[in-house]
């Protein structure tokens, strides 16, 4: 059994100004994504050039933050929003949803693609291999904060989280998600997209793999207390929201390799 290292969530404190590790992980994710985007933009088949990568990621950052916050409110904690509407704006109190962020990013890619006269799926195929970097960085932020812990377990690497309501050893599910949704997803997508693929293929692979990885990880992660299990004593909101991703991803890949135009 291990103990959570209890890292101070505040990385830098300058008087009233406090910079949290969670915010820094987002910054690292966007910075590495920007660098990798410039690397991808050097390929002759990509839809954007190196100068456009920064603008594209700015739109995506807005999509992540706005979509992620709205998604958390709607999917996971709508009752709290109804009781305290201003809570929506207090993002420093935590509460972001990947699935909401995905919707925000999709809108941002559509908007930017329209601006430069490029189809949505060409932009999405360019962006997809960059996303796992941010996902992985965010999960490290969750681990530092000691939040989103896993279910009780007796495996040797089970970890006691002080913020949990008991002293039970739990799966460090944040690290599982970092390994699958961050590292594994990045490696597969980066290698797959290293040469030209049919339009929609990279996006489809991203949706399929992320959805599958998220469904798997939810079996180890403690469900959000305000929701619990939705059905069968195992179905979580994260799994329910991931199933359409898997279906959509498989459909996109079929369309891509059958030559269906986007």
TrEMBL record:
Q: Which domain of life is it from?
A: Bacteria
Q: Which family does it belong to?
A: Belongs to the Lgt family.
The organism is Marinobacter segnicrescens
Q: Which residues form a coiled coil?
A: none
Q: In what pathway does it function?
A: Protein modification; lipoprotein biosynthesis (diacylglyceryl transfer)
Described by its record, this protein's role is as follows: Catalyzes the transfer of the diacylglyceryl group from phosphatidylglycerol to the sulfhydryl group of the N-terminal cysteine of a prolipoprotein, the first step in the formation of mature lipoproteins.
Q: Where in the cell is it found?
A: Cell membrane
Fetch the Pfam families from UniProt: LGT
Q: Give binding positions for a 1,2-diacyl-sn-glycero-3-phospho-(1'-sn-glycerol).
A: 139
Q: What is this protein called?
A: Phosphatidylglycerol--prolipoprotein diacylglyceryl transferase
Enzyme Commission no: 2.5.1.145
Any single biological process term in GO: lipoprotein biosynthetic process
Single GO MF descriptor: phosphatidylglycerol-prolipoprotein diacylglyceryl transferase activity
Q: What is the lineage of its organism?
A: Bacteria, Pseudomonadati, Pseudomonadota, Gammaproteobacteria, Pseudomonadales
State any GO CC term: plasma membrane
The alphabetical list of record keywords is: Cell membrane, Lipoprotein, Membrane, Transferase, Transmembrane, Transmembrane helix
Q: Provide the membrane topology annotation.
A: Multi-pass membrane protein
* TM spans (from-to): 19-36, 56-76, 96-113, 120-140, 175-192, 199-216, 236-257
| PANTHER family attached to this UniProt entry | PHOSPHATIDYLGLYCEROL--PROLIPOPROTEIN DIACYLGLYCERYL TRANSFERASE, PROLIPOPROTEIN DIACYLGLYCERYL TRANSFERASE
Q: What is the top EC class of this enzyme, as a single word?
A: transferase
């Amino acid at each position: 059994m291990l103990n959570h290292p209890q890292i101070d969530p505040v990385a830098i404190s300058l008087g009233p100004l406090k910079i949290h590790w969670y915010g820094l992980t987002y910054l690292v994710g966007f910075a590495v994504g920007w660098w990798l985007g410039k690397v991808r933009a050097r390929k002759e088949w990509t839809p954007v050039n190196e100068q456009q990568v920064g603008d594209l990621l700015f739109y995506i950052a807005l999509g992540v933050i706005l979509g992620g916050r709205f998604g958390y409110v709607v999917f996971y904690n709508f009752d709290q929003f109804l009781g305290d509407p201003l809570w929506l704006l207090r993002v420093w109190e935590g509460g972001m949803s990947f699935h909401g962020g995905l919707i925000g990013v999709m809108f941002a890619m559509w908007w930017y693609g329209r601006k430069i006269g490029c189809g949505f799926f060409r932009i999405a195929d360019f962006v997809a291999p960059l996303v796992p970097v941010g996902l992985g960085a965010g999960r490290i932020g969750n681990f530092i904060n000691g939040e989103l812990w896993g279910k009780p377990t007796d495996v040797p690497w089970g970890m006691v989280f002080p913020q949990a309501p008991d002293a039970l050893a739990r799966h460090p599910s944040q690290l599982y998600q970092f390994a699958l949704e961050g590292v594994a997803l990045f490696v597969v997508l980066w290698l797959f997209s290293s040469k030209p693929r049919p339009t929609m293929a990279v996006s489809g692979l991203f949706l399929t793999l992320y959805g599958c990885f998220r469904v798997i990880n939810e079996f180890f992660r403690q469900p959000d207390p305000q929701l619990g299990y939705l059905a069968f004593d195992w179905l979580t909101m994260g799994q329910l929201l991931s199933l359409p991703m898997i279906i959509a991803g498989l459909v996109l890949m079929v369309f891509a390799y059958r030559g269906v135009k986007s």
